Amino acid sequence: MLGDWLQVTIQDPNSDVAASSAEGLVNGFSQARRDKMLLPDDAPVFYGITNTSDYVFYFSPAAIEVGIEVLRGYSTTSCKQPDAEDLRNLKKVS
Question: Taking CA 14 as the corner, what is the angle to CA 32 and CA 6, rounded to the nearest 5 degrees?
Fold first, then answer.
């Protein structure tokens, strides 16, 4: 649905594997954004780590468009934009 965000949750009982997968997602997306000569605010992605050590990423509609090829390698869920309070508690992928 147009305007929806995508959520990617990386869960793995082996935290090293989850961290490596999260790093691959961040690096792949950051490279895709650089290739299109965009700044982080042009295609924002936010992330956090849950209390169960899962990595959760929120891709804005602009970020989805930029990183669609990277996202194909991950399980995604459509979601609404996180609210302002949630975004304050998350970090932005730079």
Answer: 35
The rounded radius of gyration (Å) of the Cα atoms in the chain is 13
- Could you give the dihedral angle defined by the CA atoms of residues 48, 42, 84 and 58, in that order, rounded to the nearest 10 degrees? -40
Looking at the DSSP bridge assignments, the partners of residue 56 are: 9, 48
Separation CA 20–CA 36 (nearest Å): 24
Q: CATH for 5-92, among 3.30.470, 3.30.70, 2.60.40, 3.30.450?
A: 3.30.70
Digitized pLDDT (tens) for each residue of the chain, 94 residues in all: 556 999 999 987 677 888 899 999 999 999 999 999 998 889 999 998 888 888 999 999 999 999 999 999 999 999 998 887 777 777 888 7
Phi, psi torsion values for 86, nearest 5 degrees: -60, -45
E strands, the chain, are 5-10, 45-49, 55-59, 76-79, 91-92
